[in-house]
């Protein structure tokens, strides 16, 4: 191993290259030249004594050694940032900020009440809530950019180094507007959903495999007119203005269903149920404020009877 000190710029550069899968894009984000990024990577590899990245077509790929180092590099940067934030908060007489990743399924149904309960504790901690696809949120959690992710249990290969605490189970539903033609049928024919535009979860989303297995199991191998979306605002607007059918986790549309603004088609989707819970990093102790927020989430789930 070469006696070269590893500096923060080495870690920032490596983490950004790993995130972007491109030296060029990483250089743009870091506001430096591509040769500067390459030089920094080479310095880091010399200090560690292992190759961390390698060419992969027009981009780059992280090596096995790079994947191992990435977890520690991300955690180290996160620890430094938490230290900076803690000093700033201490100077402002405020608590440590909490960064939460929440899937759309819990953002509308759980988080408003949970955050209200947490703020009532007057910890002084600022709260940042990020939403997005499960795989993205879990990667941000693994890199230390988030303290907690609330959503469905991911596949085993995505849970390496993470802990999951169960909250409740949730099913997928087929949602339409009030007065939709399929709601008026005395005997519902499942195959008729092929006559309408169907909004589907995107490939790679956590509920997509559940939906695909359900459709195939009920004799539907393809949807003639399919739109993939992760946008709940688009989904709501689309089905309110058309006869489209939206296949979505029940929690995303629970407020709309409670208000009677949207309706669930009479389809038994019990087999699509999946666990929803709290995901944290296994190797990092939770801060007291994160524990308090997790408790607020649990209490909200209990009050809702989920």
UniProtKB/TrEMBL annotation:
<dbReference type="GO" id="GO:0045893">
    <property type="term" value="P:positive regulation of DNA-templated transcription"/>
</dbReference>
<dbReference type="GO" id="GO:0003700">
    <property type="term" value="F:DNA-binding transcription factor activity"/>
</dbReference>
<protein>
    <submittedName>
        <fullName>Pca operon transcription factor PcaQ</fullName>
    </submittedName>
</protein>
<dbReference type="GO" id="GO:0003677">
    <property type="term" value="F:DNA binding"/>
</dbReference>
<dbReference type="InterPro" id="IPR000847">
    <property type="entry name" value="LysR_HTH_N"/>
</dbReference>
<dbReference type="Pfam" id="PF00126">
    <property type="entry name" value="HTH_1"/>
</dbReference>
<dbReference type="InterPro" id="IPR005119">
    <property type="entry name" value="LysR_subst-bd"/>
</dbReference>
<dbReference type="Pfam" id="PF03466">
    <property type="entry name" value="LysR_substrate"/>
</dbReference>
<dbReference type="InterPro" id="IPR036390">
    <property type="entry name" value="WH_DNA-bd_sf"/>
</dbReference>
<keyword id="KW-0804">Transcription</keyword>
<dbReference type="InterPro" id="IPR012787">
    <property type="entry name" value="TF_PcaQ"/>
</dbReference>
<dbReference type="InterPro" id="IPR050950">
    <property type="entry name" value="HTH-type_LysR_regulators"/>
</dbReference>
<feature type="domain" description="HTH lysR-type">
    <location>
        <begin position="6"/>
        <end position="63"/>
    </location>
</feature>
<comment type="similarity">
    <text>Belongs to the LysR transcriptional regulatory family.</text>
</comment>
<keyword id="KW-0805">Transcription regulation</keyword>
<dbReference type="GO" id="GO:0005829">
    <property type="term" value="C:cytosol"/>
</dbReference>
<keyword id="KW-0238">DNA-binding</keyword>
<dbReference type="InterPro" id="IPR036388">
    <property type="entry name" value="WH-like_DNA-bd_sf"/>
</dbReference>
<dbReference type="GO" id="GO:0019619">
    <property type="term" value="P:3,4-dihydroxybenzoate catabolic process"/>
</dbReference>
